[in-house]
Structure formats: C-alpha cells, structure tokens
Write a structure and sequence with these properties.
Largest sheet: 5 strands, parallel
Distance between the termini: 46 Å
Strand order of the largest sheet: 2-1-6-5-7
Structural class: alpha/beta
CATH architecture of the largest domain: 3-Layer(aba) Sandwich
Number of helices: 6
CATH class of the largest domain: Alpha Beta
Bound molecules: S-adenosyl-L-homocysteine
Length: about 230
C-alpha cells in the first residue's frame, strides 16, 4: 500500500482536500494511507523552538537541521525505502512522469518547511530530494505536498477507475488533452463538432489526436516533439 508520511508544523491541514472525493474514498478503503506528524514534537526547550535566525544575517527564520533530522529519523521504519522529499521552490520541477514513478512505489515521506526554508546541511545529511511544484513562492510546503499526493494517489491502481490510467490524459505522450463536449448538442448557438457525433471511432480518434497536437503546439511547444501541421 502507498504510505504517505508528511512532516509539518500544521498537521491539521491534512488530509484536508485529500479526505474528499476520490482520494478520500481511497483513503477510507485503505488503498493508501496518510499520516501527518507535527515537527514541533521535536522542538527544543519550553517553547518547542523549530527555527532560528539565519547565519550571516538577513530577514526571516530558518528551520533547524537538528530538529528536522529528529523529526525525519522518527518516521523511518526499518527497511523504509520510501523517497524522502523536501518541498522547495529550488527543487526539481514536479511532473506527471515523476508522479507515475512514485505512485508505483511504497509511498513518500514529505517534509514541509515554513519560513525562509531549512538549514542546508539537513538536505545533504538526510539525502532529501528537493521538489518544486512551479515557479512561484508558496508560504509553506503543505500545499505543494497536497498537490503531489493528489497527483500520485489518482494514479494508484483502483483509485480512479480507468480514466487516469488511460494514455490520453494531458502530459501523457508529451501532449495536452483534446477538448471535451457533452449534451446538449447545441448550446448558445454553438454545436458539438460533427465528427464526434458520427460514430466513426477511427475518425474520432484521428480528430482527437490532431486537436491534442494543435493545442500542444499552440500552448506548450516546450512539451516535446509535436509534429508540424499536415
Ligand atoms: N526563501 C525561499 C522561499 C520560502 S517559502 C526561497 O526564496 O526559495 C517557504 C516554504 O514554502 C519553502 O521552504 C517550501 O517548503 C515551500 N514552497 C514555496 N514555494 C514552493 C514551490 N513552488 N514548490 C514547493 N514548495 C514551495
């Protein structure tokens, strides 16, 4: 079973949205598990301090390596081979491919920093993988962890039904998905493309492939090898 452990100063943020809908149902059915641990349990002194001022000066606070290491070491089960991630805008960009890899594995340990970030020595000493969910700055790692877990959980066999395993979703084959339509057949003077009502499956597949290629070329030429229009 895919086992997620999240280390955070705000354990009440979990499962949050992952307790609803498909991820939530899968959690209830024990297709995956989620445990949120409070970093402050390992805080120092009467105030359970987890952070301190930055060496060299500057604004903000930095999370202490000793506190975070104690928190990480307390979750490592014997033989625990789960990847250990730390949320960071400096990290490797999170992708659908990464999610597929992780969803097929034993689960994830995710460290969610706050403040300016963590003491750099921790990352090396505990071999953490820095992961970013995009080129913007969140106020903490929790929303990034929720996003990563959401993407992974829907890829666990039996969680989503066949849709998510299908090869046609956005980012599979380096393509964006084709457009969708449903009833009514005409709405505000706009018709559903004729080919989709034709019942000709080969033609429909061909139309969808071309639309996916057209959208990818137009919006995300960086995604990969999209053939030129023919
Ligand atoms: N001073 C840092 C930003 C700190 S934001 C910098 O300039 O890089 C506080 C925390 O939010 C980060 O430590 C990280 O855990 C999380 N975070 C912010 N943006 C993120 C992103 N795009 N992806 C993943 N985690 C992010």
């Amino acid at each position: 079973m895919f086992a997620a452990t999240v280390l955070t100063l705000f354990p009440a943020m979990f499962p949050g949205p992952l307790g609803q809908s498909l991820a939530g149902e899968a959690l209830t059915r024990r297709r995956w598990s989620l445990e949120a641990r409070d970093i402050r349990d390992h805080g120092l002194g009467r105030h359970r301090a987890v952070d301190d001022t930055p060496a060299g000066g500057g604004p903000g606070m930095v999370m202490r390596a000793d506190v975070l290491a104690a928190s990480l070491d307390a979750v490592a089960l014997p033989g625990d081979s789960r990847p250990r991630l730390i949320m960071s805008p400096r990290g490797a960009p999170f992708t659908q491919g990464r999610a597929r890899e992780w969803a097929a594995g034993p689960g994830l340990v995710i460290l969610c920093p706050r403040f300016e970030g963590v003491d750099e020595r921790l990352i090396e000493a505990r071999s953490l993988t820095e992961v970013s969910i995009g080129d913007y700055v969140l106020s903490g790692g929790e929303i990034a962890a929720l996003a990563i877990l959401d993407v992974c959980v829907r890829l666990i066999p039996g969680v989503m039904g066949k849709e998510a395993s299908g090869a046609e979703e956005s980012f599979e084959n380096d393509l964006l998905e084709y457009p969708h339509f449903t009833r009514p057949r005409e709405w505000e003077g706009r018709a559903i493309p004729e080919v989709l009502l034709s019942g000709d499956h080969a033609k429909i597949a061909e139309w969808r492939r071309r639309e996916a290629e057209r959208l990818t070329r137009q919006r995300r030429p960086d995604l990969g090898r999209v053939p030129p229009p023919d």
